[in-house]
Predict the 3D structure of the following.
Amino acid sequence: MADQTVAPVVSAAKPAKPAQASEVTLAHIMSEHDTNLYGTIHGGVVMKLIDDAAGAAAARHAEGPAVTAAVDSMTFLAPVRAGDLLTAHAELERAGRTSMTVHVTVTAERWNATGPVTRVATGRLTFVAIDADSHPRPVPALLEPAAA
């Protein structure tokens, strides 16, 4: 009987994408339900917004599901209060074979008044793209920005 080994099917690599193609901005008005005993917003609420924005950017780049693999850094720069409009802006920094690093910047401003926009937190997270069986899958490369 002849060898019936089947060679694996190799799909064509997806074209590289610029970081701008996957950028995500999410905004949320903080309420008294988000506060801690000190009257400021729980750090975990801010962390969830960061993870949501980063996850959306990673999924856009991967063109499918991506899961949080690591929180590489999380920095809280200023307190957030009820009534603040938090805006999280996420953008890809790196794309590996199956993983992506996403940087997120969070700003706060009073939702009902004009005033200064304050940078309140930053985060850097690593995501892994997954297939339907939750196995890592390849992601497009990240295009380098054009030199000015």
Observations:
- The radius of gyration is 19 Å.
- The chain is about 15% helix and 35% strand.
- The beta strands are 24-29, 66-76, 84-95, 99-110, 118-129.
